[in-house]
Every structure is written in C-alpha cells, then in structure tokens.
UniProtKB/TrEMBL annotation:
SUPFAM superfamilies: Winged helix' DNA-binding domain. Residues 14-113 form the HTH hxlR-type domain. It holds the Pfam family HxlR. The keyword Transcription applies. Keywords: DNA-binding, Transcription, Transcription regulation. The keyword Aminoacyl-tRNA synthetase does not apply. This is Transcriptional regulator. It comes from Alistipes inops. InterPro entries: HTH_HxlR, WH-like_DNA-bd_sf, WH_DNA-bd_sf.
C-alpha cells in the first residue's frame, strides 16, 4: 500500500487502517520510540541512534510523521541550517501503547521464535 495514499476502497473511513498505513511501516515506530524522552534531536543524531536506516528512508519517515502531527520540525536560521525534531502531544499519547507492544514482544518473543522454528521443520 502506498504510504501517502491511505484510503481503502472498501473502507475509506476506517481509522485503524488509516493510522496503521502510516505508522505500521518498518521505521515509524522506531523513530517515535527513539524521540521518546529525548530533547529535540537533529537529523544526524537520529541517524546515529538508528544506524540501519538510510538517509532517504529517515527523510521520508520524518516527513510522514510530521504530516500526521506526530512530530514537529524546527528550523533555525544558522549556517548551516539547524533542524530539530521533537514529539508532539499526539505522539506522546501514542507512546504508552507502543511501550505496551514492546513489553508484549519481549514477553512473547521466545515462544514466537520457537513456533517459527517448529513450522519450518514440518
């Protein structure tokens, strides 16, 4: 599904499909989690904190999160220009749910890995 076009033909007003289409990718939750509790971060600091994300994907992810109001982008008129990203109140209200998902994943990961291994052996 195209991340920028999130309306489903059968269920155009479905809020969960709409939200998950935007934050359910490989990087969005990780970017939100990385910004949690941090002072505003610059692009380079985010890249260092998430070393396996490409510059292009970080740029696309930040734009998408900004468009949906999960983060703010502040530009400072300096040479070179300084740009910082910070979570909005909307994103902060999502974080307890992300943290719950992380806790669930930690609790269940060994069992999930065991099931995956067992299904490959069949």
């Amino acid at each position: 599904m195209d991340r920028m076009s999130v309306e489903d033909a059968l269920f155009p007003g479905c809020p969960i499909r709409n939200v998950l289409a935007r934050i359910g990718d490989k990087w969005s939750l990780l970017v939100l989690y990385t910004l949690d509790g941090a002072e505003p971060m610059r692009f380079g600091a985010l890249r260092k904190a998430i070393p396996d994300i490409s510059q292009k994907m970080l740029t696309v992810t930040l734009r998408t999160l900004e468009e949906d109001g999960y983060l703010t982008r502040s530009i400072y008129p300096e040479v070179p220009p300084r740009v910082e990203y910070a979570l909005t109140e909307r994103a902060k209200s999502l974080l307890p749910h992300i943290n719950g998902l992380i806790a669930w994943a930690i609790e269940n990961m060994d069992a999930i890995k065991g099931e995956r291994k067992a299904s490959r052996e069949v």
